[in-house]
Amino acid sequence: MAERSRVLVFDSGFGGLSVVAEIRKAMPDAALTYLADTAVFPYGHLPEADIVARVAELMTVAVPRFAPQAIVIACNTASTLVLPDLRARFTIPIVGTVPAVKPAAERSRSRMASVLATPGTVKRDYTRQLIETHGQDCRFTLVGSQRLASLVEAEFAGETISDDDFGSEVMSCFVDDGDRRTDTVVLACTHYPLVLDRLKALAPWPVEWIDPAPAIARQIMRVTETVAVEGGGQGEDIFHATGRLPPDGLVQRFGFAGQEPFVI
Ligand code: DGL
Q1: What is the pTM of this model?
Q2: H or E element: which one contains 197?
Q3: Rounded to an integer, what distance in angstroms lies between the CA atom of residue 46 and that of residue 162?
Q4: How distant is the alpha carbon of residue 38 from its chain centre?
Q5: Mutation choice for ligand 1 from 9, 10, 12, 34, CB with most ligand atoms inside 8 A
Q6: CATH 3.40.50.1860 holds for 101-211
Q7: Is the pLDDT of residue 231 over 80?
Q8: Looking at the domain covering 6-97+214-261, what would its CATH class be?
């Protein structure tokens, strides 16, 4: 039997499941391990140095334990900070998730686009730099949502979230200056694509929503082709969490056999 690549997908919470869904489509045979830092979630409000230290601490335990061929940091809030540190620590390929500013600037016709993200991602030098380098002549509105990731997490844990709650978190993405209006919204937090149907229904006018997950899945496929597989693909696909675990049905919907606490 051919060896399978094992990929470790990391996020602060359940958001990385939007990336898992795309990896499963692109690489149906890949073995996936998920690690959610639900003990510390949400990262969007944490000081930058705390995020760098926390992700390094977790990966130092997770990489030898799970022996992945590649890691996906399926979290914009972390990726916009931790990638240089992680790449200095580990030799396996590490794929990050960062705001899809370049595709938005390429696709927007009105030249008005918004980046919907956590407050942390919106504040990052990395994000500002992306807009400077790849934003072309497009006018970007940065929208740092205080609660959207937590609302998604609550909805996935079984709570009912109202349209008003979701709507108030995204309305600032829609800018109309009289002559033109926003036509493109970058989903720059992995939690948001999980509720895309709700967001579409609440939008005051239709826009193109950009989810980077399919591109991340393609990148994972490319990098795992070049890495030797040494037994990492054995065993079941398990969802691990440092704190609160999701409901059973949820992880099974994304192809995991079960869930376990992650103890450092
Ligand atoms: N899913 C994470 C992201 O892509 C953020 C959620 C959080 O605030 O922890 O940015």
Answers
A1: 0.96
A2: helix 196-202
A3: 26
A4: 14
A5: 12
A6: yes
A7: no
A8: alpha beta
